[in-house]
Design brief:
The protein is of the alpha/beta class and 253 residues long. Helices cover 42% and strands 22% of the residues. It has nine helices and seven strands, in the order ααβαβαββαβααβααβ. Helix 1 packs parallel to helix 4, helix 1 packs across helix 8 and helix 6 runs antiparallel to helix 9. The chain is globular and about 65 Å long. The termini are far apart. Keywords: Methyltransferase, Transferase.
């Protein structure tokens, strides 16, 4: 079963593809889009849930999203059309790491998709290249809440060096010339809701379509994911969403 199809099915009941509740998303967007007429770019936008949420509440704002998944973008077009946002939302089917634009953006977001760039710091560098003067970057990344066990690493198909602890993550960001102006650390409840929604939505689809050739595979994928989470990385992998502005140049001595 195609991984993009699995992801689309798994996120039907939790369209924000990250462990954040709706209230957390809304609070971050209020901080990230203070004027309400900004131009926003989402790199690795998936089904464009962040963009749709932002534009629906801000009639003067405009947005662009970039993703490689035609399945996710088809859903994004459908959702945007139903919300009446077609004239203010542009979607690009391409590799986010290769995206260029003739204009800059007031907000560039990369939430849960830094892997498309090879990690946090390359994603942050790419976002900065597309940022307008005075703009902000919204970036979401995992971090180790505690030393990962072999079971946690297996559940995530990860290595210890894939993430840092929270303090080190922030240190790396600030050393690269960025200042956090707001942040949200996902709570255990947000993580649990996200994971139950992911595995539950995929399982429900399989049970509702018993005759589909992918039904058995979907159930297996949901069970494998649930096992890796519950017996592996639950309580070990954290998630932080940072709102950043470029730091001023160092003062001359």
């Amino acid at each position: 079963m195609d991984r993009q199809v699995i992801s689309s099915l798994a996120h039907r009941d939790h369209p924000i593809a990250a462990p954040l509740h709706d209230t957390s998303v809304d609070r971050l967007l209020v901080r990230a889009l203070p004027r309400g007429d900004e131009r926003m770019l989402d790199l690795g936008c998936g089904e464009a849930a962040w963009l749709v949420r932002a534009l629906r509440a801000r009639p003067q704002a405009r947005g662009e999203g970039v993703d490689v998944s035609p399945t996710a973008l088809a859903r994004a077009h459908e959702t945007a059309g139903a919300a009446g946002l077609d004239g203010r939302l542009t979607l690009h089917e391409q590799d986010a790491a290769r995206f260029t634009s003739p204009h800059a953006f007031d907000l560039v977001s990369v939430v849960g998709s830094t892997h498309a760039f090879g990690g946090l710091m390359p994603a942050l560098a790419a976002a900065g290249e597309l940022l307008a003067e005075g703009g902000r970057v919204l970036i979401g990344e995992g971090f180790w809440e505690r030393e990962p066990s072999p079971a946690a690493l297996a559940g995530l198909d990860a290595s210890p060096g894939d993430f840092d602890d929270l303090a080190t993550t922030v240190d790396r960001v600030t050393a690269a010339g960025w200042t956090p102006v707001h942040a949200h650390v996902s709570t255990p409840g947000e993580w649990d809701d996200y994971e139950w929604a992911w595995t539950g939505s995929l399982s429900a689809w399989a049970l509702d379509h018993p005759g589909h050739p992918d039904s058995a595979h979907a159930l297996e994928a949901a069970a494998e994911h649930r096992e890796g989470w519950l017996r592996g990385y639950r309580g070990t992998l954290g998630f932080v969403t940072l709102l950043l502005r470029p730091s001023p140049p160092p003062r001359q001595k």
